Amino acid sequence: MRTYLSLALLSLSVSAHAATVDLVHPADAARVTTRDATLDPTVRKAADGGELVAVTFKPSASPSLILAPKQGTWAWQPDGTMRLRVQNGMPWPVTLIVDVASGDKHLKTVVGVPPGPPQTLSVSLKATSPRAFGMQVGPPMPFDDGKEKRLVATAVDGAVDANAVTSVTLSMPQPGAAQTVLFGKLDTVAGEGDLRAAYTGVVDRYGQYTRGTWPEKIDSDEGLKNAANRRQSWLPPVAAGGKAAVTGLDQFGGRTDLPALQATGFFHAQKQGERWWLVTPEGHAFFSLGVNAVNLTDARTYVQGREFMFADTSGASGRFGGVSDSRSDQGSQRDNGMNHGRWWDIYSQNVSRTLGNDFAAAWRKRSVDRLKSWRFNTLGNWSDPAFARDHRIAYTVPVIIKGDFNTVSTGYDYWGRMPDPFDPRFAAAATTAVANASKGVKDDPWLLGYFADNELAWAGQGPQGRWALAVGSLVQGPESPAKQAFLAYLKKTHGDAATFAKAWGVDVHSWDQVAARGFKAPDPSEAHPAVAADYIAFLKLYADQYFRTVAQTLKKADPHHLFLGGRLAVRTPETEQASAAYADVTSINTYTDVPEHGFDVAAFRKMDKPMMITEFHFGSADRGPFGNGVAAVGSEEERGKAYARFVDAAVASGVVVGTHWFQYVDQPVTGRILDGENSHIGLVGITDIPFDGFTHAVTVANARAGGGSGGVR
Questions:
Q1: 642 vs 636: CA distance, rounded Å
Q2: Cα separations in angstroms, 298 against 246, 320, 346, 678
Q3: What confidence score (pLDDT) does residue 234 get?
Q4: Which parts of the chain have pLDDT scores under 70?
Q5: In whole angstroms, what is the distance from residue 688 CA to residue 705 CA?
Q6: Selecting from 3.90.1010.10, 3.40.109.10, 3.20.20.80, 3.40.50.300, what CATH number does the domain 201-386+590-713 have?
């Protein structure tokens, strides 16, 4: 129930550009209402001398405080910023929803208000997000600008007519108990200086976040060199030749403590009892413990257009700078600003500070030595191809199929549209891609196998996303090979168009109407079960055509090595079934607490096929980068626990033959040039300094999973 206060609690001054609302010194020019909340007009003095009044939000769906003009509307500057003095009255963080309205239009943001002294909350009067600044996650709030604590809303959605604001609503999302927040003045200022200040000077000369501290943070070249080259004290003794003294493994990392399997001279997959294994060239069981993106270039970040974010941009002007353009119509680039121009390769520059100017070979040696000491045995996807020449650790090779073949949109299209495998040009492109990928490696016993493409959009988003590939094929014109294949199936299944129309519940009288561009396919329904049945059949045809084409092309060019599937992310059951049928190992990228929450373990057991998890991670936000990854945990310590839980469950499944961590190096604070990702998910930081606690937990888990023994403590 909404309560109207009898007192006039707000004072209001209106101009063409600004308005001030003061809950402490009321007048009669404005109106305040509450819904499941109470306002105590008692003036409270803050530690900084400011004055505030308390609002208590009661346990309910959406307790609210609503501020509105007594008459008419507030006229605020369209490109301005709303400021509100606020203090959390609880000893824990609270969530505050801010809704600025002009009639039916709304501008909304959600902010976390930590306990502590008063802060100034700033909300831009137009939509914004970290994506507009070229990154996926914005700086943590609040921050100290040298004068006061500022809580800037970095994600604001919607739109309002700032010249005709009708209300400001402050609410909470269903608190479990009464929560008290103190408020002072609300006013507006011209421009978006507060928003820019939130991003100003957030990166130092080493690529580190300037406003935080953590154990691995450094402040000098000498400190960087010492930390990056230091051997972790808990590692086991070093054997002759500089290799960790690991026992129970063959030279490829296969387990000599288990019964021998078939030795073919190359890696392959084989079942032993109730468990699937990868098998080394020497015939020993091998659980692939891998790391993705072990390379020097993943930490490039754009500088041009956002120089104000960096304390020192000189690195972008020398040998560690370059120019790129990441703009595209892919989903990964939607709403991504500052995505082209000059970039800075921060990680490479830091590596050069520790290893000298000619550092690439030394970095590869140091990286492999680290990985093997942490009990990893595989270089996952996107790793530096130059590692293949080192012959000291198993590696993988991607086959990226590009060409002028037809493509199909599923609406998701994060990395682009789906290739049309029914197009003869796709098979030709696959032949070229396989030839390029296998050149110089097809006789190498250290090659684990090949991946095909990466995270293709096998499905769309939303409740009907499973059918997106079928619907996307039918909307194309008659020249589309995918549509031709679907039409051929429909004609064979239903015969004449009238029978089809009845089965699908659509108003068509000839097959030409279905073949025409723009045909709107219906969603499946109980009234017309044939729709779902036909979609499933076509999705199977589509996936079979793709995986069969790639498998046959790959095995013809290189019969020795494994086809490791397509690194599936967004997918359907039909995709998994086709991969299991044609690939030697199905690869799935999943970001869940345990593997069985990311894919159907029972289905792979029933198919009796091996699979490999080729991307997973756990991130936290306490080591610099703003993001905490796709699978987030609360702290650095929790990352190690989560890693062990995940890998232990994978080993116990009986069908998972490997787990590949994403990724080796933390992402840049300001976002990688590919898509703005900026999370703490690495084994090492942007400075190339290992995270000791995490890598120790990883080493113990890897040793238990099959990475060998040898004194891990």
A1: 10
A2: 30, 13, 10, 11
A3: 72
A4: 1-19, 26-29, 236-245, 709-713
A5: 26
A6: 3.20.20.80
